[in-house]
């Protein structure tokens, strides 16, 4: 009888262990579910903040762009090459290199991913030099036109009498001499 009792106790203990395992598993799944829900809520909250920040920064950038564009078009009529030379960025981009993190902290960089040679910085100094040369010695077709004069022109009288009618001699003057 003792052996039968031990077998029953063993089955009972095993059933309790299974129940405890299932309970732990359910608790673990419930905890993961709660953590996932909290993560989603936090993610969406951060996302909304990021969207609002992007909206404000994009609005500021757009206003700055529009102001610069208006300034460019206003100055382009006066000094064409100077306006174009101002469009070229002054800083020379460098490439982000993998390696020591200490060197990356010391040097600011701009990552270049586009252009004729992707990943290779483009040197704009020659183009800037040419545009500055054109700024100081503009070509004839890019020079601004002089403003119209305020004096009234007598084009009608000049057209009737010829180009030099006011200084030409009359036929009577030619016969008397």
Automatic annotation (TrEMBL):
Single GO MF descriptor: structural molecule activity
Keyword Transcription tagged: no
GO cellular component, one term: clathrin coat of trans-Golgi network vesicle
The entry's keywords: Coated pit, Cytoplasmic vesicle, Membrane
Signal peptide range: none
Keyword Membrane on entry: yes
Primary location class: membrane
Protein name: Clathrin light chain
Origin species: Cephalotus follicularis
């Amino acid at each position: 009888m003792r052996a039968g009792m031990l077998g029953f106790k063993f089955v009972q203990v095993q059933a309790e262990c299974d129940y405890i395992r299932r309970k732990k598993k359910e608790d673990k799944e419930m905890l993961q579910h709660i953590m996932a829900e909290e993560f989603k809520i936090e993610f969406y909250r951060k996302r909304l903040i990021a969207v609002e920040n992007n909206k404000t920064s994009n609005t500021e950038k757009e206003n700055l762009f529009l102001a610069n564009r208006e300034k460019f078009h206003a100055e382009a009529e006066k000094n064409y090459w100077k306006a174009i030379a101002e469009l070229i960025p002054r800083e020379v981009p460098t490439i982000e290199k993998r390696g020591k993190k200490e060197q990356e902290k010391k040097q600011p960089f701009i990552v270049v991913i586009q252009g004729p040679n992707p990943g290779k910085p483009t040197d704009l100094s020659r183009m800037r030099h040419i545009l500055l040369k054109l700024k100081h010695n503009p070509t004839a077709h890019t020079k601004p036109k002089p403003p119209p004069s305020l004096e009234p022109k007598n084009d009608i009288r000049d057209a009737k009498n010829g180009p030099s009618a006011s200084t030409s001699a009359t036929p009577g003057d030619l016969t008397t001499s």
